[in-house]
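Record type: monomer structure entry
Structure origin: computed from sequence
Chain ID: A
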Amino acid sequence: MQLSTNDWLSILPVLILSVWGMVLLIIQLFLPKERSSLIGWLSMIGIVGAMAACMALSANRLSGFSGMVVLDPMAAFISLVGLLATLLTVWASLNYIRDRGIERGEYYALLLFSTSGIMLMAQANNLIVVFLGLELLSIPLYILAGFAHPQLESEEAAIKYFLLGAFATGFLVYGIALVYGATGSTDIAQIAQVAQTGRNATLLLVGAGLIIVGLGFKVAAVPFHMWTPDVYEGAPTPITGFMSVGAKAAGFAALLRVLLFGLGAVRLDWMPVLAILSALTMILGNVVALTQTNLKRMLAYSSIAHAGYMLMGLAAGTSAGLSAVLFYLLAYTFTNIGAFAVLTALAQGKGEDQTFPQYAGLSRKHPWLTVAMAFFMLSLTGIPPAGGFFGKYYLFLAAVDANLGWLVMIGVLTSVISAFFYLRVIVDMTMREPERETPSSIYPALVTTLAVTALGTLVLGVWPGPWLQMAQAGLRLFGG
């Protein structure tokens, strides 16, 4: 097999990140343990390099490896979202893992490998590449979820994530096998051609359903969400933030490719299924979040709910729904990583208390943390001028245009429900008396994370146009 220049260029951002991760593993062998934080700073070189490659190569659609991998505007957009999430996570982690006694250089290399999986899934134009990207994303995340061992909560999170993740991967692989049996190909473009003919439609739809199950696990959609609360609570806090964004970005990238491009001809068959999943996910995520007393678990159910909102854009089955999902992913990245950065600042030592009483009266000692957290909660609710407002607006608009008014009504009602538990955080921070001492660890890198996420959330809320246009660049996938 002879590889052309286009083959290498199409995966250049992934190569930069994964090769740099291997270099970091070698470097950390020669560093004393007390210098492990240097690996975190060095990891940023690979992240910035991959970002530069994405932006430089995304202007024209590159296809490599006989069309199995494509680097187009949509892939570049989702890759940049994943790289941004990784960079912010590295900043938030520098002192966190040191304070908790889990500072090891492979932490950052695993983050880079997992991000490589996100990027590969975004570029996948073949179901085999979707599977490879999913495994490259997931295996490092299984390890990172249990990185705080010997804490039982972290070990439990890793075991649950691994076992349920392997189970969900089985559904994905079986779905790919059935789609191959129905179409004779794993290439998404060829699958699209066969889908238009209506040949083996039943087998094709069964395979598509199993693929939805496998990817639904990654995006934490109901009823494939059961792992989310325990894993989010037990994993190191910066990893929880990364997981809530990165896994969703990868899962939705694959869903967009497979459903809207590969199976667009049979969208009338899978759109109702996604609409029902969207409704169930929004309802369960928001209702169960009402009962939570731990902020990490509350944000876990919040993450489930937001997967439901993004599924609404997929259920619309239109290019407007696609661009709305991409914009929402960007807004959600800034908002959710910012919220978890606040939790990171308040996580001290080898144990961390993330219950609501920990945040009572926070405004008296940490006014700026309170302001940041309040802004992120307003964005998650969908209140202007935060970016979450326009994220939901574009999703609802795409759903209305697709005659899914009933789904929009559920989205609006569940957003009203979510206001209760999001605003509860603000009320506790500003209006309740402190019940205990609230230690914090605020350092320059974490301040940078909070500043960037808050600014990004604000910019998307007051100046959404250019960012929506970037998201709409994914319309080239449809030739539009």
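Annotation 1: The mean pLDDT is 89.
Annotation 2: The chain has one domain: 13-478.
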